Amino acid sequence: MKNIIPISRINAVLESVFKQYCKYSDNEEDFESFDKPWNTKLFHQKLISFRKSNPKLFGAIYDTLKTNLALMNLVSDDNVTNCVSKLFGMKLSDFSVSDQMVRLDVPEDVRNIHGWHQERSFFPQNRSGLNGLVCWLPLNKATKENGAIHICVGSHKEGLLSTKREGKRDGSYTTQISVPEDYVKKYEDIMVETNVGDAVFFNMLLFHRSGKNISNELRFTIQSRYHMSTADDFIPYEFVNYYNPFVKQKLLKNNFDCSDIPDNKRQPPVV
């Protein structure tokens, strides 16, 4: 869908990214002369450097953005939700939304990029996967160089595949639940380059992956999942009791009471 996301919504999310960077890096003075510092090459350079030098604090930025109000406003914008309704031919009252997030993909990342996968492998709300979809949208232009999304058109017709959850090297790596290559090679690999304001909607069963970022800037994107909650195969499901343990340690060091924060447990993805 071309040019459906208001630029004001996008700037609000990017400003939130910038403010979280300033909070955790304590480095705002370098940007005092810029009206919109989040659109500068300097900000990309600083954020890339910050991830290398402070990966735990970078993770705190990532986790904080998951509950950001500007993000919530964007994924519930009328232009977005109207597309969801039209694609399914259902009313807005039929849908739930979950797991909205901002991705900050740095150049040459090998830790957090998924291979070919189906979204349903990670998000089990609609059991078949056919009654849900993903909204993928860029906050800066998504190109071949910075890792635009790749899709296999028609691959959702394969249904939900029985795939294995691959072990993580450590806590900094993303869990992989990959589609076997024998399935992928049956379809054409199409890269979808998008401008700021565009959005890509696709079925939860579609084979897709991010491209490799070989540029010198981050790729900022948003992903959100919409589920037909009135369908028979829907289950209200959420990941519970998860928090960034590094942030908790930081709070404790600053003498904040964290006794009401439970043990850090999160259900594994359902395969």
Task: Describe the overall structure.
This protein has helices at residues 7-25, 41-53, 55-65, 69-75, 78-88, 181-184, 245-253, and strands spanning 95-105, 132-138, 149-152, 189-192, 200-203, 208-210, 219-228. The radius of gyration is 19 Å and the shape is globular. The protein has one domain: q2cbj1_9rhob like domain (Jelly Rolls), CATH 2.60.120. The protein is α+β, with helices and mostly antiparallel strands. It has a four-stranded antiparallel β-sheet with strand order 1-7-2-5, covered by helices on one side. Strands 4-3-6 form a three-stranded antiparallel β-sheet, with no helix packed on it.
Widest β-sheet, arrangement of strands: 1-7-2-5
Provide the CATH superfamily: q2cbj1_9rhob like domain
Overall pLDDT score: 89
Helical run tally: 7
H/E topology pattern: HHHHHEEEHEEEEH
Major β-sheet, in short?
4 strands, antiparallel
Given as residue ranges, the uncertain stretches (5+ residues, pLDDT < 50) are: none
User: How much of the polypeptide forms β-strand, as a percent range?
Assistant: 15-25%
Total number of distinct structural domains: 1
The CATH architecture can be named as Sandwich
Structural class: alpha+beta
The amount of helix comes to: 25-40%
Radius of gyration: 19 Å
Q: Report the CATH topology name.
A: Jelly Rolls
Our measurement of the CA-to-CA distance between the termini, rounded to an integer number of angstroms, reads: 30 Å
